[in-house]
């Protein structure tokens, strides 16, 4: 049995209790335990905060080189990581690549940004503002690293990408990190950090890891710290309402539940290129990572006159999804991360099926390839069909975190936008259209309540990265129900870990400051 450890105050150490078991979701067998009880987490946060001066003293170029070195360590061990992802997360080879390569790619992207920014340790915004009639008193805005620590609380579905996308931005901003992965899939995070620590490339105090419940972690936050959380809305609300968090008011970024939407435009012909591209995208939504993506498609809005043809074609695609042991080459849909997640998904489906009929799935599959469907955490790919866009409640409110989506008919563009906005704030929306004017109208309506809007037409059809895929160049997050946060987005991500200060003075002083900083060209 594997016993995961935490890396705190520069030392690997096990928890003092029996811990919680983590499992192989394909078989249900226990793989090991994870525990952080009895550890001095407050001391570890203080250690990271005090020793973080080493990271802040580095230039952007040096921080970028550090990120590149971390990525090189991870590349050298990718085969081992893929095996852990299969055994602990139920990932197929494709699923594991999205998580592992996504983390490495984000590290390398921010490494390149660091190299571009060069020898400075601060960012200065372009342009200046004149504050008096004479041109002798002006202002510019500068970003500098805050003297705190970043506390990252990550979700179970991306133990690699979720860890490293946050670390990449924080490190480039000059902020040391204390990361807490979700216990159910912490094995991959722990192994990756263990490899990076062993490579002896980290400045003192730069990266700490809490494997387990993290008792006392929020109690240790202070004024200049930053908390970045990804997970459920309930946990996000608990963090917002935590007494220490409210008292000390650290920076707080929340990424929570999201009822994301895909819209087939009225301009898209049945059987046409865009129509077929959306069919492929929804099929991926019902199979990749077993549907366990926070950005995944949950609702599909289809024009009423195209509804029957779309559902018929999509059912045929769903019937072709091979469910089973993720080690088998033919498997497209593996298990959810554990039986607890399956029970939660089934409870959510019970609410959705009160409003929409299952065209396919809706329960545990009768059989799967190479495994026992009941012992493993398998859920059949589920396609629900709503009779109309009216009188729906749960469909717009309940996120089933698994391979499930609901098709909803609509009439006008205004109705499509109104239905999409019933999600009350989402991470991602996508438009599948043949006409640019229609895409522009729909995008303008969707943008206020979505963090990202993907517009797919025949021009980008062959090259777009997909509805759920988060790219480091673009912000990730969403308003309202989705938590109101923002991550990534190139240099935009550094704002969360930086203090933006208005510098007022003479042109000569501002020019001297600018000479020691990199320009924040967003």
Query: In which order are the strands of the major sheet placed?
Result: 16-17-18-15-14-19-20
Secondary structure class reads: alpha/beta
Mean pLDDT rating: 96
Net shape: globular
Residues in helix, %? 25-40%
CATH homology superfamily of the largest domain? Aldehyde Dehydrogenase, Chain A, domain 1
**Percent range for β-strand residues:** 15-25%
How would a textbook summarize the main sheet?
A: 7 strands, mixed
- List the domain count as a whole number: 2
CATH 2nd-level architecture of the largest domain: 3-Layer(aba) Sandwich
Which fold name is given in CATH as the topology of the largest domain?
Aldehyde Dehydrogenase, Chain A, domain 1
Instruction: Name the poorly predicted regions.
Output: none
Number of helices: 16
Spatial gap, N to C terminus: 48 Å
Q: What is the CATH level 1 assignment of the largest domain?
A: Alpha Beta
Using only C-alpha atoms, the radius of gyration works out to 24 Å
Number of strands: 24
Description:
Helices cover 35% and strands 20% of the residues. The strands form 6 sheets. A 7-stranded mixed β-sheet has the order 16-17-18-15-14-19-20, with helices on both faces. Strands 6, 7, 8, 23 and 24 form a 5-stranded mixed β-sheet that branches. A 5-stranded parallel β-sheet has the order 11-10-9-12-13, with helices on both faces. It folds into 2 domains: 39-247 and 501-519, Aldehyde Dehydrogenase, Chain A, domain 1; 261-482, Aldehyde Dehydrogenase, Chain A, domain 2. The protein is built from 16 helices and 24 strands. The protein has helices spanning 41-51, 53-56, 60-76, 78-89, 93-117, 161-173, 186-198, 233-240, 243-248, 273-285, 307-319, 339-352, 394-397, 413-421, 436-446, 507-514; strands spanning 2-3, 6-8, 11-13, 20-23, 30-34, 123-124, 129-130, 138-145, 150-153, 177-180, 207-209, 226-230, 251-255, 261-264, 299-303, 357-360, 382-385, 404-410, 426-432, 450-456, 475-476, 487-488, 498-505, 518-519.
């Amino acid at each position: 049995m594997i016993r995961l450890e935490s890396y705190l105050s520069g030392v690997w150490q096990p928890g003092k209790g029996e811990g919680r078991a983590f499992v192989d979701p394909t078989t249900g067998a226990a793989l090991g335990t994870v525990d952080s009880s009895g550890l001095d987490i407050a001391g570890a946060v203080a250690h990271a905060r005090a020793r973080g001066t080493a990271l802040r003293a580095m230039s952007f170029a040096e921080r970028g080189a550090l990120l590149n070195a971390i990525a090189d360590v991870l590349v050298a061990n990718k085969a081992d990581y893929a095996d852990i992802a299969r055994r602990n997360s139920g990932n197929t080879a494709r699923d594991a690549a999205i998580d592992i390569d996504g983390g490495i790619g984000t590290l390398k992207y921010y490494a390149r940004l660091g190299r571009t920014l060069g020898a400075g340790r601060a960012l200065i915004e372009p342009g200046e503002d004149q504050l008096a009639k004479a041109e002798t008193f002006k202002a510019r805005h500068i970003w500098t690293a805050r003297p705190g620590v970043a506390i990252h609380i990550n979700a179970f579905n991306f133990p690699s990408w979720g860890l490293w996308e946050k670390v990449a931005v924080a490190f480039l901003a000059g902020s040391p990190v204390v990361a807490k992965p979700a216990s159910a899939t912490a094995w991959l995070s722990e192994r990756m950090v263990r490899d990076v620590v062993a490579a002896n490339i980290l400045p003192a105090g730069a990266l700490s890891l809490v494997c387990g419940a993290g008792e006392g972690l929020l109690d240790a936050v202070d004024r200049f710290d930053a908390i970045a959380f990804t997970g459920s809305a309930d946990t996000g609300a608990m963090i917002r309402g935590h007494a220490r968090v409210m008292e000390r008011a650290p920076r707080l970024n929340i990424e929570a539940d999201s009822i994301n939407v895909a819209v087939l435009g009225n301009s898209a012909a049945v059987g046409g290129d865009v129509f077929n591209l959306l069919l492929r995208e929804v099929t991926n939504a019902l199979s990749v990572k077993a549907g366990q993506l926070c950005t995944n498609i949950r609702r599909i809005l289809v024009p009423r006159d195209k509804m029957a043809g779309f559902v018929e074609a999509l059912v045929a695609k769903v019937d072709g999804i091979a469910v089973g042991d993720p080690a088998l080459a033919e498997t497209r849909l593996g298990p959810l991360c554990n039986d607890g997640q399956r029970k939660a998904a089934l409870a959510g489906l019970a609410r959705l099926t009160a409003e929409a009929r299952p065209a396919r799935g809706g329960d545990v599959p009768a059989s799967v390839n190479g495994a026992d469907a009941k012992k493993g955490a398998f859920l059949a790919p589920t396609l629900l069909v709503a009779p109309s866009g009216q009188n729906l409640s749960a469909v717009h409110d309940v996120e089933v975190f698994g391979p499930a989506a609901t098709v909803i008919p609509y009439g006008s563009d205004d109705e499509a936008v109104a239905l999409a906005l019933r999600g009350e704030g989402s991470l991602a929306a996508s438009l599948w259209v043949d006409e640019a004017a229609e895409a522009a109208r729909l995008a303008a309506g969707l943008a206020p309540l979505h963090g990202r809007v993907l517009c797919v037409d025949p021009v980008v059809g062959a090259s777009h990265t997909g509805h759920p895929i988060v790219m480091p160049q673009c912000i990730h997050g969403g308003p309202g129900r989705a938590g109101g946060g923002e991550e990534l987005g190139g240099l935009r991500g550094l704002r969360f870990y930086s203090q933006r200060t208005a510098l007022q003075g003479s042109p000569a002083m501002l020019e001297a400051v600018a000479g020691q900083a990199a320009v924040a060209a967003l």
